[in-house]
Amino acid sequence: MNYTIKSKRIKLSIALLLVSLLALTACAPTGGSVDAGKETIVFADAGWDSLAFHNDVAALIIENGYGYPTDVTMGSTAATFTGIRNGSIDVYMEIWTDNIIDAYTEALEKEEIIEVSMNFDDNAQGLYVPTYVIKGDAARGIEPMAPDLRTVQDLKKYPEIFKDAEDPSKGRLYGAIPGWAIDEILQEKVENYGLTETFNYFSPGSDTALASSLVGAYERGDAWVGYYWEPTWIVGMFDLTLLEDNPYNEEDWNNGYATEIPPVDVTIAVHSDMMEKAPEIVEFLANYSTSSAITSEALAYMQENDVDTDEAAMWFLNEYEALWTTWVSEEVADAVKEAIQ
After folding, report:
1. Which of 35, 73, 69 shows the shortest CA–CA distance to 52?
2. What letter would DSSP give residue 122?
3. How much is the average pLDDT of 299-324?
4. How many angstroms separate the Cα of 215 from the Cα of each of 15, 26, 209?
5. Helices (H) and strands (E) in the chain — how many of each?
6. What is the CA radius of gyration of the chain?
7. Domains in the chain, ordered, with CATH?
8. CB neighbours of 80 closer than 8 A, spacing ≥ 6?
């Protein structure tokens, strides 16, 4: 995901939100099939699979557990975020807050939207290697290639392991996607760490090309080092290791990005009218919380089985029943489970 520097944000107190919801939802009916008399809950879809997956999980629960019809509005991040601000969109299941921090903070301050939950905050990005590069893979007959490789700085010891076929005098380090803010950050980091003396920073050109280079190397059992991020199907499917870096602190980050890349808060927000339109849905979403690992696993399930996000959502509801049933009442959980059997 694109990345910009963290700023101070305003957070809604979930405790206060739930107190206000208790009064609104005490007598609210739940369960059953979609009720045509209820207003449609509209989700934002800005074009990436993990957001669509979470939309489908929430929609299955909302339709089958609460009886609300659902719909999706597609568009760019800017367009869909404008939609939730003006009320044409009700729910945004995966807001990468730092990417739109100014607009996000302003929308919170103006009470146009309500942040109801942290979907996940354990995402990561940085320089990865296949784990077999460090530990080997006995099942595939792969010996450890760089057994002492732990940190980004350690790469200086191993340029020959990651030899650039076009310039064998140096290693090849696959960079981030051109146009993403992280690409400029990573180039500066690599130069400041002195890695450009022994590595070529190679621009992959696109996220598809970057994925293809990694998958191809992994399938051949070759060494590979480069930028990646999670949650993605790549991280969910393959055994990769994120190279360690200096612990994050703002001073060093602002001085040449000399730390690990800090995770981004990925939140769930609703338009403020949802408190009146569907308070029981806001209460459900306030409980909704997953992880980067779960999301990557769902994306890998899609890739391995050649299915869409709706089928991945069904897989999640069956595979992670112990998790999602804690988000809703027993009555709602039973209605959802009956519907997906």
Report:
1. 73
2. -
3. 97
4. 44, 51, 10
5. 15, 11
6. 22
7. 14-122+265-340 (3.40.190.10), 124-253 (3.40.190.100)
8. 44, 45, 46, 73, 74, 89, 92
Structure tokens of 256?
Answer: 């040449």
| Cβ contacts of 335 within 8 Å, gap of 6 or more | 30, 31, 32, 64, 65
Residue 156 is classified by DSSP as G
The pair of structure tokens assigned to 323 is 């998790």
- Is there a contact between 73 and 85 (Cβ–Cβ < 8 Å)? no
**Mean pLDDT within 156-160:** 96
pLDDT for position 258: 95
Contacts 24+ apart (CB under 8 A), 311-317: 312/53, 312/56, 313/53, 313/56, 313/57, 313/59, 313/60, 314/60, 314/340, 316/53, 316/57, 317/57, 317/60, 317/61
Is the predicted pLDDT of residue 24 greater than 80, yes or no?
A: no
Give the mean pLDDT of the chain. Answer: 91
- In this predicted structure, the answer to whether residue 53 has a pLDDT above a threshold of 50 is yes
Return the residue matching tokens 């990561």.
Answer: 124
CA–CA gap between residue 291 and residue 222 (Å, rounded) = 30
Instruction: Read off the pLDDT of each residue in 224-240 and give the average, rounded to a whole number.
Output: 96
**Distance (Å, whole) CA 160 – CA 93:** 44
Q: Cβ distance 231 to 292 under 8 Å?
A: yes
pTM score of the predicted model: 0.84
* Alpha carbon distance 187, 174 (integer Å): 10
Instruction: Write the CA distances from 86 to 91, 237, 275, integer angstroms.
Output: 12, 38, 15
As given in the structure block, the two tokens for residue 251 are 């001073």
pLDDT on residue 32: 53
Chain-centre distance of CA 279, in angstroms? Answer: 26
